[in-house]
Write a structure and sequence with these properties.
- This protein is an alpha/beta fold and 139 residues long.
- The chain has helices at 12-28, 52-74, 89-100, 114-117, 120-127; strands at residues 3-7, 31-39, 80-87, 104-108, 131-135.
- β1, α1 (12-28) and β2 (31-39) form a beta-alpha-beta unit.
- α3 (89-100) crosses α5 (120-127).
- The longest helix has 23 residues, at 52-74.
Length: 139
């Protein structure tokens, strides 16, 4: 059985990518994993600082993004394993893909955090040891 990884940030592009990942997992009988990365360049680990609330919000948002993909998949019967992590998005996505032995990584063309999330799909595509599918919002 193969493994598909969907990276999400909750954007329109990520939802389109999640829909495609769920379809493929259902067609292939593949395991589906979802990850949302809290970008440490923007949100550091929570600590007693003025940015603590923003970091907590980003962590909550990441959990909601993972839960959204899980709910979308529940309608099809595809089981999803999800995780949220801190780090530089493309690096964390690639590390997680290696951990779960992903055969395919699916990402949206753009993300919600243009200044930090754009280019993630391109970097993942360039550096991945497995197939990568970059999905547009209208795919």
């Amino acid at each position: 059985m193969s493994t598909i990884l969907i990276a999400t940030d909750g954007s329109e592009y990520a939802r389109s990518a999640a829909s495609r990942a769920i379809e493929l997992a259902e067609e292939r009988g593949a395991r589906l994993h979802v990850i949302c990365v809290v970008d440490r360049r923007r949100f550091d680990e929570p600590a007693l600082s003025s940015s603590e609330l923003a970091t907590i919000y980003a962590e909550d948002h990441a959990a909601v993004c993972v839960a959204e993909v899980t709910r979308m998949a529940a309608e099809t019967g595809v089981t999803v394993e999800g995780d949220t992590r801190h780090g530089i998005p493309h690096e964390v996505i690639l590390e997680y893909a290696d951990e779960i032995d992903a055969g395919l990584i699916i990402v949206g063309e753009h993300g919600d955090h243009e200044e930090h999330f754009s280019g993630v799909g391109q970097k993942v595509e360039e550096l991945a040891d497995c197939d990568v599918m970059v999905v547009t919002a209208n795919s």
